[in-house]
Amino acid sequence: MIKLTSDQFIFVLPLAAEWAEAKEQVVLKNGVPLSDSQMDDARRVGVIHPEKVRIFEVPQIPLPKHPVLKAAAEETQLITPSTVGLTVRYGIFIHSDFSDDRYLMVHELVHTSQYEKLGGFLPFFRKYLLQLINIGYPEAPMEQEAIKMAEKICRK
Q1: Is residue 118 packed enough to be buried (19+ CB in 10 Å), middle (13-18) or exposed (0-12)?
Q2: Among the listed residues 117, 112, 103, the one whose alpha carbon sits nearest the alpha carbon of residue 147
Q3: Could you give the CA distance from residue 142 to residue 156 in angstroms, rounded to a whole number?
Q4: What secondary structure, in 3-state letters, does 50-105 show?
Q5: What is the pLDDT tens value at each position of the chain, 156 positions in all?
Q6: Would you say the C-alpha torsion 70, 76, 82, 86 has a positive or negative sign?
Q7: What is the H or E stretch that residue 32 is in?
Q8: Close Cβ partners of 25 (under 8 Å, ≥ 6 residues apart)
């Protein structure tokens, strides 16, 4: 569990949402649409608008530059140098070494579904970050949902 005061959480929450929204725009501009089989997987995990999803292969998942946000991302293990996938609503960053990993893609698509169900960046991060802070990664329920759904669909 992470020790973050309520004041720190209130400060980090809008920063995280703002950063994620900006990164989503990068993926939407530079990424590629889902393949037919990925569209099928997206529908299976509950993505309402799979046609909006874009995938952007990168050599490393971007880390926030803001010092407080960067520290929070590293502390919660949300983003580390070993992170291979990151979903920012309809934008999915995938490490180029894992571009053909169906399990990873399904896992990230579950997060897209969670963004949709929760209604956007702020509600997603409010719930997700609280889980990471109070329970930890990867035990957080939203993370467990993504893990279990990917296991079910990919039969790993």
Answers
A1: middle
A2: 103
A3: 19
A4: HHHCEEEEECCCCCCCCHHHHHHHHHCCCCCCCCCEEEECCEEEEEHHHCCCHHHH
A5: 456 666 777 888 899 999 999 999 999 999 999 999 999 999 999 999 999 999 999 999 999 999 888 888 877 778 888 999 999 999 999 999 999 999 999 999 999 999 999 999 999 999 998 888 888 888 999 999 999 999 999 985
A6: negative
A7: strand 32-33
A8: 91
| Residue carrying the six token digits 């998942």 | 61
Residues 6+ apart with CB under 8 A from 82: none
* Residue pair 155/146 in contact by the 8 Å Cβ criterion: no
Helix axes 102-118, 141-154, angle to 10 degrees: 130
Sign of CA dihedral 29, 31, 35, 39: negative
Domain range annotation of the chain: 6-154
Distance CA 36, CA 151 (A): 20
Q: How far apart are CA 6 and CA 18, in angstroms?
A: 19
pTM score, whole prediction:
0.93
The encoded tokens of residue 126 equal 């409010």
CB atoms within 10 A of CB 110: 24
